[in-house]
Amino acid sequence: MHTSRKARWAVRQFALPAVVRPCPDCPSTRHRPSGRIRVNASGKLLDVWLLLSCAGCDRTSKVPVHERVHVSTLEPSRLVSYETNDPAVVRELTISASLAAKNGYRLDWSGTWELDARTPLYALGSPAPLRIRVAFDLPAPIRVERLLMIGLGLSRPRVRRLTADGLIVLPPGLGAKAHRDFEFTVYRPATPSATATELPTARWPHAEPIGA
Ligand SMILES: [Zn+2]
């Protein structure tokens, strides 16, 4: 009985997604967060907007976050983070699927992430299955097949064949888009020749022995 080996891949944030919606002033549909949040108080009622910049003409536009809410309904610390343009809150609002749905725009996640598949060192040739956890720093929807191609350094047909042969076992289908953490298992092919053709040593995630 072999103890299964474990590795962790990370989908790292490279950039924030673009907000896709028409600009009234130019043909561009791509908007970036300006880094600012606007709070407007009218008595005890507050309006809060996320401010965007058009990628084509720099026009500023507003996404309503709260409309006419009583000041007492917001956590004081939350209000401070709005008033100080807290980058973490700007990020949270920009990647929010619910805010996008509520305001009728789409998020374009292309170019927002990279896969860090560097992993600790394990002995190559161990027949123990390799359990890989894929952790998402940002909820970018990415096709599972693409993650495996990048992480294992394999072509699309090879990833499909290994999955069809039961050597890659994963809960979401290859065609599914993942946007949150998941785990899958890679089994070593049974024969040396299959090892050579299916999983090139150079791209195998743990190609160096422990202690190297
Ligand atoms: Zn514009």
Compounds present?
zinc ion
Strand order within the widest sheet?
7-1-8-12-10
Total beta strand runs? 12
Arithmetic mean of pLDDT = 86
Helix content: 10-25%
Largest sheet: 5 strands, mixed
Number of domains: 2
- Principal-axes geometry comes out as elongated
Q: Count of helical segments?
A: 6
Uncertain regions: pLDDT < 50 for 5+ in a row?
192-198, 200-212
SS-derived structural category: alpha+beta
Terminal CA distance reads: 25 Å
Element-level helix/strand string: EEEEEHHHEEEEHHEEEH
List the helices and strands and how they pair.
Layout: E1 5-13, E2 18-20, E3 30-42, E4 45-54, E5 60-70, H1 76-83, H2 87-94, H3 97-103, E6 106-108, E7 113-116, E8 130-136, E9 142-143, H4 144-152, H5 156-164, E10 168-169, E11 177-178, E12 182-186, H6 192-198
Parallel strand pairs: 1-8
Antiparallel strand pairs: 1-7, 2-3, 2-6, 3-4, 4-5, 8-12, 9-11, 10-12
Give the structure's gist in a few sentences.
The protein is of the alpha+beta class.
Give an overview in words.
By secondary structure, the chain is α+β, with helices and mostly antiparallel strands. The chain folds into 2 domains: 5-14 and 112-203, no CATH class; 18-108, no CATH class. It has helices at residues 76-83, 87-94, 97-103, 144-152, 156-164, 192-198, and strands at 5-13, 18-20, 30-42, 45-54, 60-70, 106-108, 113-116, 130-136, 142-143, 168-169, 177-178, 182-186. Strand 4 (45-54) and strand 5 form a beta hairpin. The longest helix is centred in the last third of the chain and has 9 residues, at 144-152. The radius of gyration is 23 Å and the shape is elongated. The chain starts with a strand and ends in a 14-residue tail after the last helix. It binds zinc ion. Zinc ion is lined by residues 23, 25-26, 28, 54, 56-57, 59.
